Amino acid sequence: MVLFYRPRRNIGSEEVLAGIGGPPNKWRFKRTNCPYSFLSVSDNRSSDLVLLFLLSLIRGRQRTLAMTQYQILVSSFTEEIYTLLFDDSKGTLGLVSKVQVGHHPSWITFHPKDRSVVFAGLEQSDGKVAELKFDQHGKGEVVGKVESGGRDPCSLLATKDELLVANYSSGVIRIIALADSTPYLTSSSRTIQFSGSGPNKERQEGSHPHQVVIIDDREELLVPDLGADRVLRFKKGTDGDWNPCGHIQYELGGGPRHIAYCNGELFTLLELSSKVARHSFSPNLGSPEFITSTATMSSPLPQPNDMLAAEILVPQSNSSFPTPYIYLSNRNDPSPAGDIISIFDFTSDPNKLQLIAEVRSGLKHVRAISFGGPDDKYLLAGGVSGGGVKVFERIDGGKGLKEVAKNEGVVAPTGFLWK
């Protein structure tokens, strides 16, 4: 007995072909309102199988439709973390809930094994880290808090057994041990104190670690230090501690803020000079090799100005987007059309960074962007100073963006997590 089918390409137009073994002259076509059409058979013994098969297709279709909705957590420069629901079939981005956390929960990160748990850095003078537990509906509650070890924690990264915290204003990295079950935060910790300064007396009077990133290919921890114009490198020793193993120097006054790694190359966003730098950083290289740097925009304003580069991402290539591109955000553009999201090609020429698109976001002070959805199809962006949160869809193989949803009610969004 054979069972086969063909799903419709367009619901309501083409029929599905399905059948059960038996003489073809006993089959008849039938059109239905279901997204699947099928063939019924005069052989009554097969009717139960047809029904079971059809029900399984409907359930599969329902599961597919359900996946068009995505929960998104939004950190902010308020006292709240928001939960939004993005429905890509309707083009809506609605508020589900929000939870009071504390002063400026500006950076959030998942527990690597328990995605119901999120850690948030409270960006304040007596820095703290909060642990939150979210239910399946996106409602969260604070289940624990510990000291961040410094002032203004601005970046967090959780591994299986520790939480890395960058304290911007005090130049301290705190490494907090994580328990085996929630609440994961413990009082056990150790710190790494940074030192250094740069020529910009207002922004580089001291060391300012701005991000913590682990490069798996090299088994290294990288920390951009905006205050000292360098990215510090660490390797974990046999004792479990992160030990210094060198640094990457950048142009004086550039202010490295965030980094992205892809296929043996390191891309660094320089906040103060609004530039992006490219280094070769493959695992077989002992030290990174500088390749080039360029402005983050086609027409940058003369220095000094209030514009500041903010975020840089390089989503991994996949079947939908086989060519990787660099996406970065710029803040405080005076244009009424809002801040620019820039897209760079880095694969066409190994020695260059080619600006291929600038997308006006309609947002003010775009601090963070984030990819999510199937094959990282969607990009989230938020305006701290206006515009709320928007969802953009990647088009033209990733070389462009188009707006598909927005929520203007979210206040001062600073970061995102796709649940």
UniProtKB/TrEMBL annotation:
Any one GO molecular-function label of the UniProt entry: 6-phosphogluconolactonase activity
Transmembrane parts of this sequence: none
Top-level division of the source organism's lineage: Eukaryota
PANTHER family: 6-PHOSPHOGLUCONOLACTONASE (PTHR30344:SF1), 6-PHOSPHOGLUCONOLACTONASE-RELATED (PTHR30344)
The family this protein is said to belong to: Belongs to the cycloisomerase 2 family.
Identification of the protein by name: 6-phosphogluconolactonase
